[in-house]
Write a structure and sequence with these properties.
The chain has 251 residues and is α/β, with parallel strands linked by helices. It has ten helices and six strands. It has a domain of 175 residues: Decaprenyl diphosphate synthase-like (Undecaprenyl pyrophosphate synthetase). GO terms for molecular function: transferase activity.
Length: 251
């Protein structure tokens, strides 16, 4: 019954969705792969593969409603401390997923994160995917791997200090010119709009450092579904909830 019902329900939601009130940039925390694997009696790698398989459908749904930027959090800086037996297969799965997206040439991929903290092979694969899709005229997809919000801000400040030193700018001069806009220009997402909506799956209701700076005025949507089970109807519900809110932008 559900399989027969959901397509009609989704179509109705799309027809009634206020197109003028949809987000331009969404951030998605793809959470719950390990719990999903445990629930189905499989190993962790199986859960990560199931999660990776759900990325392409999400991007298709986003493209369908006119979203311009999607940021996917695939691996945090904290995750880099996981045991090698879990981390290494996960990195391979991420590499394969990202290269598969690049091969389609539907979306422009942009890695965001501390690539210098990643194994060289993984960093190279991410850069290859970015280069291969540089001229693609499609939705921008930020691939957050080795990403942490605090790390991003620290990297931005470090970059500003390096530029000031190279230009011979004194610390007093830099302090006078330091601004929100200057920091924005040194983030991993420089030049991009901040996310309008951040979605986290798995029922957890915390950011964990995701887009810490950029999400200051974002709306948040927490979904109970574990990431591999996240469906188009869940995505549309998140968009509907967003469209129904009155955004105050901190006021």
């Amino acid at each position: 019954m559900r399989r027969a019902f959901y397509p009609a329900y989704e179509a109705r939601m799309l027809r009634t969705m206020p197109t003028g009130g949809l987000p331009k940039h969404i951030g998605v925390m793809l959470d719950g792969n390990r719990r999903w694997a445990k629930a189905v009696g499989a190993d962790t790698a199986h859960g990560h593969r199931a999660g990776a398989a759900n990325i392409e459908p999400l991007l298709g749904w986003s493209e369908e409603v006119g979203i311009e930027v999607v940021t996917l959090w695939l691996l945090s800086t904290d995750n880099l401390n996981r045991p090698a037996a879990e981390l290494e297969p996960l990195l391979v799965i991420i590499e394969e997923a990202v290269l598969s997206l690049a091969d389609q040439r539907r979306w422009r991929l942009h890695p965001v994160g501390a690539l210098d903290l990643l194994p060289q092979r993984t960093a190279e694969r991410l850069k290859e995917a970015e280069e291969a899709t540089r001229d693609v005229d499609g939705m921008l997809v930020n691939i957050a791997v080795g990403y942490g919000g605090r790390q991003e801000i620290a990297d931005a400040v470090r970059s500003i200090l390096h530029e000031a030193a190279e230009a011979g700018t004194s610390l007093d001069e830099l302090a006078r010119t330091m601004s929100v806009e200057l920091i924005n220009d040194h983030l991993y997402t420089k030049g991009q709009p901040d996310p309008d909506l951040v979605i986290r799956t798995s029922g957890e209701q915390r950011l964990g450092g995701f887009l810490l700076w950029q999400s200051a005025r974002s709306e948040f949507y927490f979904c109970e579904a574990l990431w591999p089970d996240f469906r188009r109807v869940d995505f549309l519900r998140a968009l509907r909830a967003y469209a129904q809110r009155e955004r105050r932008f901190g006021a």
